[in-house]
UniProtKB/TrEMBL annotation:
Organism the protein comes from: Limibacillus halophilus
Designated name of the protein: Glycine betaine/proline transport system permease protein
Organism ancestry: Bacteria, Pseudomonadati, Pseudomonadota, Alphaproteobacteria, Rhodospirillales
GO-annotated cellular components: ATP-binding cassette (ABC) transporter complex
Sequence ranges assigned to domain ABC transmembrane type-1 in this UniProt record: 98-277
GO annotation terms (biological process): choline transport; glycine betaine transport
Places the protein is found: Cell membrane
Pfam families: BPD_transp_1 (PF00528)
Membership in a protein family: Belongs to the binding-protein-dependent transport system permease family.
Entry-linked SUPFAM superfamilies: MetI-like
Membrane topology designation: Multi-pass membrane protein
GO molecular function (one): carnitine transmembrane transporter activity
Residue stretches spanning the membrane: 78-96, 102-124, 145-173, 225-244, 256-273
Keywords for the protein's UniProt record, in alphabetical order: Cell membrane, Membrane, Transmembrane, Transmembrane helix, Transport
Amino acid sequence: MEHFDLLNPFGTGFLPVGDWTENGLQWVVGEFRDFFQAMKQPINAVLTTLEQGLRGTPSTVTIAALFLLAWQVAGLRIGFLVVFCLALIGSIGAWGNAMTTLAIVLTSVIFCTAIGIPLGIFAARSDAFNRVLRPALDFMQTIPSFVYLVPIVMLFGIGNVPGVIVTIIYALAPVVRLTNLGIRQVRYDLVEASVAFGGSPRQTLMKVQLPLALPTIMTGVNQTVMMSLAMSVIASMISVTGLGQMVLRGIGRLDISLATTGGLGIVLIAIVVDRISQGFGQTRRDRGRRNWYETGPVGLLRRFVKSKALRKDSSVAASS
């Protein structure tokens, strides 16, 4: 036994937390490798579909589609901003890597939303579950993001799919927290009125709480998107491709040109995704008391069809 110094008791660590973690992880890898490999399949399916779709579609078609989406959800000015950012990404030669990064981010956000919103709803309805969940979310948000990489590599290997998994773990907390917060902030008298008029818990949730909490929930989704993009460079250390890999190679070779191109591409992709995701959080009041289908390209198409039908009715009435 080593000499114990009462005045300096922490000269050497006596709790081998690192060894315990390594042994525990080795046991989990040995016993549950097949389970963790099976977990990769749905993520791999979504990621492959998105990546093949984004990289296989001509860039002009992708820009046009994202312009129409941005115009519909966030307005014409944001639509033109999206076109400018995407055109600039193509101009600097980062289009292919940007589409890979976009596919990874979208896959991460899809799974974060599918997992995080139900967890947030359950946490809003159960104080006991919220008390258990909060320390876990605190742990996930405060632990250095590099630390995630080691267990993820041991459990899932390297590549884009493990990169998506580490991004999901890193970016899940905001959507859970803000879904919980948004539902808890819904005025109690509105919930009570729904219950008084015979609304079931499910109807109250779907028709009162979730619509009123939508701006807060979308803020959580927006934060998840931003954290996913921030993780793209760190995740490139486990062979995740895309813009993060360009930045990492640039740092490794001291190639300022490559690092700048990758970094600028990440910034531009962040602007595009941020502006579009913020648009999804707009309420009817934000759109000037109009429904979503009354604005943007869909609203323009509806007005065109209506005016054409009116002219046809007028011509029929005049001829008769």
